[in-house]
Every structure is written in C-alpha cells, then in structure tokens.
Amino acid sequence: MGKEIQLKPKANVSSYVHFLLNYRNKFKEQQPNTYVGFKEFSRKCSEKWRSISKHEKAKYEALAKLDKARYQEEMMNYVGKRKKRRKRDPQEPRRPPSSFLLFCQDHYAQLKRENPNWSVVQVAKATGKMWSTATDLEKHPYEQRVALLRAKYFEELELYRKQCNARKKYRMSARNRCRGKRVRQS
Question: Count of alpha carbons within 13 Å of 27, Cβ hemisphere only?
C-alpha cells in the first residue's frame, strides 16, 4: 500500500565487541543477581581480552569479518538517503582565512625550525597558546589583513554571482531558442 521504510543496516562491530557481548552473557549466566558497575566490568573485560590466546581471539576476529561482510552487503542493497557533498565550483572564490589562521601560517615555520621533532598537532597547540596570550596590539596586523582579504573576497564573490546569473540567463535563452520560443530581452 504505502512505501516501506527501509532502516539503515546495523553497523558492523569489532572482534573486541563480539568478545564483550559473549563475556557479558557468560557473566550474567554465572552470576545472575550480581550487579557490577560499567567501569569495573570494562576493566575485567579488557584484562580478560589481553589474557586470552590468539586462537580464541581468532574466533572473534572471524565473527567480526562475517559481520563486516554482512554490513557491506546490506549497505549495497540499502536505498535510503546518503549524503552527497555539493561539488564546489572551481571558479567560485574561496573564503579568506581568519586572523588566527594567518597568525598560524606566519608562525608555523618558525616553531617547526625551533622544534623539528614536533608533530603538526603539537605545533598547532603551541600556536593556539601563542594566539591566546597575544595582546590586541599584536593581533591587530592580522585583523587588518583579514579585513582587506574579506573586502577582496566579497568583491570577487559579487562578480562571480553576476557571472553565474548571466550564464544561467544565457542557458535559458539558448534553451528557449532551441524550442522555437522567443525570449523578451530586458
């Protein structure tokens, strides 16, 4: 009669989660009236997981592989909504970076030279601290650059939108000409 609502397939779980579910069921059978807090139970499970043999872990890994195959097969047949990313027009102007990002660009090389073994995350944290401790006077040049970049961006965006509208009008008039209709020029 009506459309059937197709539910999204249940996600696959790891071998450790399969072990957890099995261990939980065994624990409930052995001690049905005992309550164990989540933290304590998790600790027991992780200790047990580390102590079991590779042969036993292989059983759970096989279950996880089967579950993954099931999930992938169900996703192939799933017709529900999937998010599609909007394709970005390469001619569309890009938004200007923030004053903080300009600050990061200026200080990244310096921090990397001073600390060559730092990861990108560590450098980012350091620049974040530098920015938060910087005074308004130190931030002012970056904010001025951002203001200039923003003004330029909005000019380019306005020009881009005008060009897009002109292209749309041209396409519409061309389509109508192909159909033999006359288009009023305004």
Answer: 16
